[in-house]
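#onboarding

Welcome to the new folks! Below is a worked example of what a typical request in this channel looks like: someone posts a single protein sequence, and someone else replies with the predicted structure as tokens. Don't worry about understanding the tokens yet, we'll cover that in week two.

Example request:
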Amino acid sequence: MTTLESLCSTFSLVFFSFTSLFSLFSLLIFIIRLRPWCNCHVCRSFLTSSWLGSFDNLCDWYTHLLRKSPTGTIQVHVLGNIITANPENVEHIIKTNFHNYPKGKLFTTILGDLLGRGIFNVDGDAWRFQRKMASLELGSVSVRSYAHEIVSTEIQSRLIPLFASVAGSEGENGVFDLQDLFRRFSFDNICKFSFGLDPECLQLSLPISDFAVAFDLASKLSAERAMTSSPIVWKIKRFFNLGSERQLKEAVNMVDNLAKTMIEQRREMGTFLTQKDLLSRFMANIDDDQYLRDIVVSFLLAGRDTISSGLTSLFYLLAKHPEVKREIREELDHVMGPTREGLATASFDQMRELHYLHAVLYETMRLYPPVQFDSKFCQEDDVLPDGTFVRRGTRVTYHQYAMGRMESIWGSDCLDFKPDRWMKKGVFSPESPYKYPIFQGGERVCLGKELALMEMKCVAVALVRRFDIQVLDPERRPQFVPGLTATVRGGLPIRIKEREG
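Example response:
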């Protein structure tokens, strides 16, 4: 090792020791300052040892605090954050006073290396331009048909054969992580839909895709930036190209190189004029290659982890509630016919008739939303409908996970998995998007909502009709890894069996 390498190694050791001590010091300061400054008296339970064993997830703790608050809102002044589970406040933030609550510079800085100027990481004119363009594309019949074709092909050629090949396997060889399988499935789909690229993650051999690994790592490390004790920590690491920031840079470079290569090839060959994926469609209207990269990578992030998270939660809940699975099968037999031969997925017309399955998906995401909370930053002083004063520059978070568990919103059975709460006379009946902001609402309502529901329905139809998926420990509540989406720590171990009867 050279002298320079030795110095760098020594500096790195000192730096990481310093940051560890800094993080610990910041936590101690937070605890000390939290006692007098949090306006919600139950926040002080954070300081008791009993709190540590009371909640499986941080989101459960926030749910506890919000349920104790008379207004469904808490303020943590030391963090400069207001957190709410009040539907009237949510409507005010994302609809009534929408322009006063942008994502803000802090959010765009944290995700800037990965998402750049993509639609989910910008405000103002840049956001409006991308949203208008994406709305025209995602709302077209041709794009929805193309997406359905991709999903159906992936199910028929990979998902079903994979499940069939391992069904009935015994021992350790018969145990699979369902979360991993769904992440592979959704990554194949979103890459084909966005880039026209097939990473082949769901092949029978379950190969490792370098692109998928790089994308996962970039997403994970970007999310971890938001959890550091202070932005200065990750900014210093990025400046010196150390640790996680060095890993993030390398991962983002791999994503950039792939996107750049695909864009250059299509421009040279003119193939974007005939292909159906989002990148090709956007290339017809945008000449800036970096901008194209940012837009498409944003769709990769949104369309991969949210789908796999929703599907993982769905089959976890079905394992705990076999009566719901029976009702889904009865509906499928009624709509598609009792035979399970032939096509594995439902047509567009058939999916519109699957009201109960639609309700099951909504109920799943009420309890386990793929994105557990969303934050905005207040531009000018404001007052929320519940009377909470919001100072300029304050981070305001509406907490979807907590909202799904509020008795004031859903009644005394709010913790129960009851798809029938969404049904009226046999027909799915939606609730207000501000009571149920899983797909946001107002001007930022999710453009991919219908595509996401279509993909989850197709998977549910294919798997529930043919297989019995047995969760190894259905009584163990999911513990979530901190991140941009709800990812279950340790995955969801399952066994797969062919359906009997």
